[in-house]
Amino acid sequence: MAKKYCYLFSEGNANMRELLGGKGANLAEMTNIGLPVPQGFTITTEACTQYYEDNREINPEIMAEINEYIVKMEEITGKKFGDKENPLLVSVRSGARASMPGMMDTILNLGLNEEVVETIAAQSGNPRWAWDCYRRFIQMYSDVVMEVGKKYFEELIDEMKAKKGVKQDVELNAEDLKELANQFKAEYKSKIGSDFPTDPKEQLMGAIKAVFRSWDNPRANVYRRDNDIPYSWGTAVNVQSMAFGNMGDDCGTGVAFTRDPATGAKGLFGEFLTNAQGEDVVAGVRTPMHISEMEQKFPEAFAEFNKVCKTLEDHYRDMQDMEFTVEHGKLYMLQTRNGKRTAQAALKIACDLVDEGMRTEEEAVAMIDPRNLDTLLHPQFDAKALKAATPMGKGLGASPGAACGKIVFTADDAEAWNERGEKVVLVRLETSPEDITGMKASQGILTVRGGMTSHAAVVARGMGTCCVSGCSDIVMDEANKKFTLAGKEFHEGDYISIDGSTGNIYDGIIPTVDATIAGEFGRIMGWADKFRTMKVRTNADTPADAKKARELGAEGIGLCRTEHMFFDPERIAAFREMICSDTVEEREAALAKIEPMQQADFEALYEALEGNPVTIRFLDPPLHEFVPTEEADIEALAKAQNKPVETIKAIIASLHEFNPMMGHRGCRLAVTYPEIAKMQTKAVIKAAINVKKNHPDWTVKPEIMIPLVNDIKELKYVKKFVVETADAEIKAAGSDLEYEVGTMIEIPRAALTADEIAKEADFFCFGTNDLTQMTFGFSRDDAGKFLNAYYDAKIYENDPFAKLDQNGVGKLMEMALELGKPVNPKLHCGICGEHGGDPTSVEFCNKIGLDYVSCSPFRVPIARLAAAQAAI
Ligand code: ADP
Ligand code: MG
Ligand code: MG
Fold first, then answer.
1. Which of 24, 122, 132, 605 is the most exposed place for a label (fewest CB within 10 A)?
2. pLDDT over 70 for what percent of the chain?
């Protein structure tokens, strides 16, 4: 049977999201449960994929099916496409499987031309409406389909408003709008070189193609990469008959949530604008009214809307985000979806739904996007400092969090400043989808215009970035990069602090403090821990980090990078002496100075971990990373070593490597300088013995990890003197301490020969940063230079250093487990690369049977939740 590319809303349902996209599937579902939905049909995501396969053309087969469905739509609505007397006007709306708010383009009032407008203007007795529809259509079609650019049309509107001495679009009358439509068409012709299309079918195909094409626009690509949405999914297209919110004062359009998307509080939340259409509410052309005010103006529609909200929430068992239009007092539902929400709101809603009996604990855990938790783990304003500070202005608390940084005025500046390490707050009149990368680069976003559902607010909430929107007290001068607030002029680079929960704006810097897990966050994490089977450890080098990670739920240290302990000034001197030694004796003398410091560090770590496992990795980086580069430091070292400066310089020069990441590092250091590994062994074992003595009830069992092993003999060689040294210490202390010696699997050869290596290793820890680097054959420090080109060319969709490459690197991991485990049934396995805190990578680790993931302290809750979701 031939593939079916089109579905009437009445033919689909909510489960067909893959084929119909989220919007289409939900329009179908709403139709099925009897809600008032303007009827239409959905062109499937497969048609989009086919469009790309056919070199960005709609093939005749699909074209024919679309035409067939237009006829069906005409029958359902009793209107005819392109008919003068009774024209069918439609919207053409994109809708991917996962909602991508504001990322794709919509066209309204399609099907209009000069003749049709004149007729409906006369027939309806409402020429203002007719011309408003037409000018909007030309505007959107030119922008979305022909890519003329919004700004030309907005300028024409501004000119018209100035000429008429009015402030708002609604104050323009039919004549003005007609003149605007003509100006728009002239603008179109001057930019495109041909007349604006009059044939509705031609308009429709153009619009459908534009939606397909928008799947590949740069902002959609950025959004997808941030949200793990595969490029291969494609978008569906919805063709829907219009409901008109712009026919007069008994009409309007709105957006609403069934619960507050910022806090999660139960209750209708949203905005409504009379005599308006489409994006007017979110684009901030006028300040909309709070949804509750709708009750006075539209009592019946409001009552019905309330009922619909309840129906939808009960049906989807989740907070809904809805779009609707009122046409002459009658309600039409245009969209519903599970609403995007802040992390705080997500936790509250999930807990409330459990308490309301709508969801199970498992479902509640599954509802939270782990990536979202990040925002809750970021610093909040210090409560004391905040109390003492006086806000100089207030906007809407559109996306919670605390942001403090230097003011920038454009998205490009935000990106550029961020790249050179500056923290910035982006201040804009309003944001648009083009600003998305700049928004991402900002600590926070402050806008002059726009409500809680404005672009800035929605996108910021999605990204978990703090946002204060609609502070109309700001007198903005974007062109000159300055604004005035509370009588003070602010310039680019000035410090500002904004509170995304209260909407308060502060002059200067307000200090921030770390977040904690409590309340609903704690409840959800408790449930997550109940359901997950994989352990979560942390990568921590200092007792402070380890404590933080413990607070956030870490069950051990999966990776302690010992070299990080060497950088403080007192230690680096001793370490440099060690590096610049000529003889074993000299080296041992220098190491003897370091040993007690290391031992103290390890004792503090064991204390912080309270008997939970601690994996300590032996020295890993190439030695040249530690040598001095400043002349004064070199001289000091020469003096300490009692050697000529030239000798020291010669040693430094000799440490130079062409490719240090593949050079003299990892266990190769232990092979060439066994005394380093011996010193580290002593420090680890002595520390453990001491802590065990002080806390007999704790399990203190050191896990010594040898990095960068690629051959069984190499591990055996190093392990031999590690074990000898350790056993000697244990014996001397008369202790019964047990310990393990394991290895990192971070070189492909280690994975390939894991059956041999497992004979000597008590555990494997996948160092996926190096394993990725070595498997791909490119350096993680240099990949940034070319990865963007790879994204643009669709060779890679993600940064393999952020998201585990399951097909390649993942296959090596699986192979290592399959080879290693049978040889050594006691072998325990974990991961300690950056991937240990990435939700999809965590899911993969669970699937292949790792015992634990280890990630940076602030990612621990994310990993706990992701591990639970993987297990559910
Ligand atoms: P987005 O995915 O960016 O929200 P939509 O496809 O939902 O884009 O369209 C944007 C807005 O256009 C909707 O919120 C709605 O107000 C308006 N709209 C879309 N289709 C119709 C329609 N058939 N009748 C009236 N308004 C519509
Ligand atoms: Mg929408
Ligand atoms: Mg490594």
1. 122
2. 99
